[in-house]
Amino acid sequence: MSIRVVMFDWDGTLIRSLEWKIRNGGILFSEVFGVPAPDVEAAYRLHSGIPRRELFASICKEVGLPALGKEQYAMMSARFSDMNRRVLLDPSTPGLLPEETPLALQSLREAGMVLYVSSSADQQEIIDIARSLGLYDYFISTGGEVLGSKPGFYKGRQHVDYVCQKQQVGLDEILFVGDEPTDIALGRDAGVRVAAKAGTYPAGKLAEAQPDIIIESLTELPVKLVNG
Predict the structure, then answer these.
(1) Residue 92: Cβ-neighbour burial (10 angstroms; 0-12, 13-18, 19+)
(2) Residue 215 class from Cβ within 10 Å (0-12 exposed, 13-18 middle, 19+ buried)?
(3) Which of 91, 137, 196, 224 has the most C-beta neighbours closer than 10 Å?
(4) What is the pLDDT of residues 34-91, one digit of tens each?
(5) Are the beta carbons of 145 and 158 closer than 8 angstroms?
(6) Which CATH architecture best describes the domain 5-16+97-227?
(7) What's the chain look like in SS3?
């Protein structure tokens, strides 16, 4: 594999934040709309991996709520980010950073890879958490960035097009790493190679979406890329 750039999904791939966000989503919708938190959590799991505006719209549809207006969504999104920061920036939050993550990022940096985060989450939220966990420099020091989603600039094809232009690389030189079938579909749609990390979903489920690589640990990735 002649990979020069590795783009990572954030939640569930590099850090174990997804369960906390799902829980916060359940609490938020329950407090604001009075819907059962477990129903919201189930909807979140079903649609996880898409941009937040689409995610919230999908949750509303699943639990029988009307679509959120612009101001209502802005309020919900801001509250959700605040809730996430309180948990994910708290050093006492257990198990947030797997040991494999900094090891893999360090190995990829030493191999000369340019590293990016490509997430559907709020960009500043990711940057704050990455700094808190000591991960931010792995991306910046390689010439990469931490990319989140905003209107007109989303995880998937738009992030990939941006990276291609900035790094002057072809699609076949980029690998996207995610942990959900949605990630595999986004990578495929963007025209790049995809590695799926088992954990959030078992390897057998991920295999159904036909990624190029399936790994059980991020530490497998540098070996596969360096050795071809």
Answers:
(1) exposed
(2) buried
(3) 196
(4) 999 999 999 999 998 888 899 999 999 999 999 999 999 999 999 999 999 999 999 8
(5) no
(6) 3-Layer(aba) Sandwich (3.40)
(7) CCCCEEEECCECCCECCHHHHHHHHHHHHHHHHCCCHHHHHHHHHHHCCCCHHHHHHHHHHHHCCCCCCHHHHHHHHHHHHHHHHHHHCCCCCCCCCCCHHHHHHHHHHHCCCEEEEECCCCHHHHHHHHHHCCCHHHHHCCCCCEECCECCECCCHHHHHHHHHHHCCCHHHEEEEECCHHHHHHHHHHCCEEEEECCCCCHHHHHCCCCCEEECCCCHHHHHHHHC
- Name the token pair of 59: 């949750």
What are the pLDDT digits (tens) for 183-213?
999 999 999 999 999 999 999 999 999 999 9
Partners of 194 in beta bridges:
176
Here the tokens at position 66 are: 């009307």
List, for residues 8-19, the tens digit of each pLDDT value.
999 999 999 989
pTM metric for this prediction? 0.90
